[in-house]
Design a protein that fits this description.
Distance between the termini: 30 Å
Radius of gyration: 23 Å
Strand order of the largest sheet: 1-11-7-13-5-4-2-3
Largest sheet: 8 strands, antiparallel
Shape: globular
Length: 307
Amino acid sequence: MKKIGLAELLAPVTLPEFFNSHWPVEPLFIPATPGKLQDIFALEQMQDLKNLISARQRKVRACLPDFDDEYSSIHLEPGDALKAYRNNMTLVFDSMQSQDSTIADMLGNVRADLGLVTGGENDLCKARSIAYATPAGCGTRLHFDANANFIIQIKGTKTWRLAPNESVEFPTERFTTGSEEMPAALEKQCHAHLIDALDEDSMKVVMKPGCVLFVPRGYWHETTTEEESLSLNFTFSQPTWADVFTKSLQEVLLRSPEWRELADGLEGTDQERKEAAIARFEFLLKSLATELPEISGRLLLQEGGLI
């Protein structure tokens, strides 16, 4: 089977064009091209919803109609999924890479082509493939993700509206309008109020079978359907320089018995022990500050197994 990677996913857009003009912050819509991604479209489970459900060996998420967001969902056995769908509940098929080797290979190839750091066993980049079966007249509420997403429209159509995020750059948390609470980390990252609706002139894309859409991390988007829709997503968490630094630095610190000591006394009612613990951490931190100028970034990355 021919390799399916980022070049095949984005064609006829070239990789240099994508990396120079879109990745990682600008969306990209690619109209359908005849014959493109044939190995994906030929998969038996991509032919219709019944096939997709029949091939399922793990639970399916069904989005609750009271809050049109995929994280407001229940987990169903595959045998109950079609009934939920017929009651206007979008079905979410997580971990499609575990369901088909062609999808798994493509997911790995695209991640490698993107150059996303993995970090060995403690994977810094979570790569997943997810199928979405959406009934007519449904969709998703306005939100942004902490992941980068590539969407292939398989069946039917879906309308997307998108807009840049002027409130937070490179968010590390997902957010949906109408949510009762904002993640604490996201609240600290925001520098302006989050919007609750898109402007009328926002980017609009109608996804038809064969179309591909790249949605960057943090980009606002919402979807609607006028007919039944089936799409296949390839989603990648976005390792930050903070992730890279903390992982690689930890590997260096754990070489030292001092840094491997028990962090004893930081919590509890004994104030004297707590102050002693804070003082110990202050000492270790100041010692590290004197050593860091002598440590190269390349060395840290090598110690962390990142290069």
